[in-house]
Amino acid sequence: MARVVKVFRTLRNHWKKSTFAVCVLSYGGHWLYGKHCDNVLRREACLVAREFGRQQIAPQERLRKATVILNPAACSGKANNLFEKNAAPILHLSGVEITIVKTDYEGQAKKLIELMEQTDMLIVAGGDGTLQEVITGLLRRPDQDAFSNIPIGFIPLGARNSLSPSLHHLSDNKVKDITAATLSILKGETVPLDVLQIKGEKEQPVFALMGLRWGAFRDVAATISKYWYLGPLKMSAAHWFRTLQEWPLAREVSVSYSAPKLRPPDLLPQKPPRPSLLYRIARRLKNYWNPPIEEPPKAEEPEEWKEQQLSTLELFIQTHNKNPVKRRINDSLMICAEPDDFTVGEFITVGNKKEEDSTVFTKNATKLEASACQLQLPQDAGGFYNIDNEEYEAMPVEVRLLPRKLHFFISAERREQLSLQTQ
Question: pTM of the predicted model, to two decimals?
């Protein structure tokens, strides 16, 4: 008992040191517990992947091939370590032949994809920039019709992963997000996604999965990081300082658009039964003596374009990939334009909301559905576009929807959640 009393007396006499020691031990214990939970998640994911690797294949079958495009510079240079710890072991245990290709500089993924050989699946490990480079390189290929049927997996390793909420259930744990995304690739469930083809007057087209953003809110978002020293007030401060430099911030833009097209029904590919031998011989003889007359292809009806002049604080042309499971009547892209009559207070409030989700628009926003659109900017407009969060110089462009062009792996749990949202 005397020893216990002595310990308490020592703690009371040195209360500052005792408090510091308790804080350090608490933080260290919490850190170690987090590391233990991460290791448990990795182990569970590897056990699931091992079951895929133990599946038997027929003697004449070959292993599936997967090509991984990894951007080590993503997430401030942490992407390579995140991939090696959390995704690579799962892929190697899954019984899939893995080829890992690492990019060395910005834009290299486009060139690598243009030279890529046939593969059974394509895996993109990086952020928004890496994913946009990969799909742009893929759809610029001369044989893109064949390669666009390759299923694509996305492992979120970047600072921004805009497509991830559409494919996986996100959490606050980076390890859990990466392992869940990798396992969804092995399970093989896919969903078709729309693609935007964005073409300028001279340059090659760029392709996007989420959308094109232009306007004052985009410009302010690009400067928020400069006010890091203001902590949680940096977003509001960036918007306020922008209003001090120039107000109002409305911009004029001419938008020409064509009507959306009716979406064809989703039909499962069915292979018709092969006719009997006698029927095939008779058909060939008939075609030999009376060759069928080829009808000339029907000329496509010219698109009807409508033009509208807009004065807006922000213009966003986006796909419906935020919820790819939802059934729609038309294949269309959305043209959203904010009104130009915001007060300074409203500009700051709306800007803070858009920083959390740039696809959110106010009730008074102009919304148009189209299958294609053309943007004509004033000569002195300048500025930049954000195309899937990548910066491009603003210029007159044509944006065309490629409906259900690519297929991405999706987790079954996320598909069910998105289906419930549509009900």
Answer: 0.85
